Write a sequence for this structure.
């Protein structure tokens, strides 16, 4: 990406998460109207969970009563027969309840939740991010054995599009995951002239290409991150004051282990342990606007601010 675009950072200051960077929840950034819309979706999900849970409890009670009455009615005294029948009936209803809840939440509520949080955002249940793109970022020492992506939340900031992806890349061997969290992707109109990565200070990145350490002359940034690039001089143009301030603020909000990669026309930000939308089960606690959004709202705001800091109009 040309230096003219990289240098346009005046609009990046509009992203200022400092007002709630110490908050544990994202709900403090909701206005009353947004909170009301999200609460309606939460009420729907909570009602569905309660309906199927109560139905399952009723089936369980009926099964227990049936197990007691079974030998009296059938004259079969072998308790194993009653246990097998009851287990089969309860198992059938349990699988059905879990399937129906997953369907109503996954196909309907998640899309409504995203729209209620921000009408300009789009939602897809399956991520379009590929394992090849993940490996191509070259942000991690090992590529991982497998790949799973779900939830894709998309938006636009001027001429730049952004998307948020929930990603799980397990290790090739038994051990910690290579990555589990959210990948933020920004796609710009023009390409970056070099492959540049930003990793936590002292951490290891990939080894796909020889890279030079980029000196950015920002003590706060240097204490937290190291930057490497295949083109030192071009990479220097990317690290404007506003861009580095955004990354430092994001590290305070989302954790110090975030990583960034400039690859062709895209900027990727890996945010470990972050979530887009919560998993809902029969045992889930009631959803609130704060827990329902996870970190989706703040991640979308961060992506928009980063796009503007990089020169999007």
């Amino acid at each position: 990406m040309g230096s003219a675009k990289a240098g346009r950072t005046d609009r990046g200051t509009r992203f200022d998460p400092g007002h709630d960077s110490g908050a544990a929840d994202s709900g403090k950034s909701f206005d009353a109207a947004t909170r009301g819309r999200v609460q309606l979706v939460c009420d729907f999900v909570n009602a569905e969970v309660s309906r199927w849970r109560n139905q399952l409890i009723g089936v369980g009670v009926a099964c227990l009563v049936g197990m007691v009455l079974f030998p009296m009615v059938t004259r079969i005294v072998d308790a194993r027969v009653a246990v097998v029948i009851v287990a089969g009936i309860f198992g059938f209803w349990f699988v059905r309840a879990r399937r129906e809840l997953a369907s109503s939440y996954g196909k309907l509520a998640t899309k409504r939740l995203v729209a209620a949080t921000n009408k300009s955002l789009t939602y897809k249940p399956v991520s379009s991010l590929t394992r090849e793109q993940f490996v191509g970022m070259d942000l991690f020492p090992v590529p991982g054995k497998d790949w799973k992506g779900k939830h894709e939340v998309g938006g636009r900031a001027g001429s730049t599009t952004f998307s948020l992806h929930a990603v799980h890349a397990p290790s090739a061997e038994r051990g910690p995951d290579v990555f589990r969290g959210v990948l933020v992707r920004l796609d710009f109109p023009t390409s970056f002239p070099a492959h540049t990565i930003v990793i936590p200070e002292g951490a290891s990145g990939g080894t796909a290409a020889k890279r030079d350490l980029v000196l950015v002359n920002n003590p706060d940034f240097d204490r937290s991150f190291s930057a490497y690039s295949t083109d030192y001089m071009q990479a220097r143009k990317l690290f404007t004051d506003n861009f580095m301030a955004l990354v430092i603020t994001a590290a305070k909000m989302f954790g110090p282990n975030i990583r960034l990669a400039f690859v062709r026309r895209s900027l990727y930000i890996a945010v470990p342990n972050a979530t887009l939308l919560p998993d809902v089960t029969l045992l889930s606690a009631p959803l609130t606007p704060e827990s329902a959004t996870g970190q989706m709202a703040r991640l979308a705001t961060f992506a928009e601010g980063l796009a503007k800091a990089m020169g999007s109009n």
The longest helix spans residues 32-74. The radius of gyration is 24 Å.
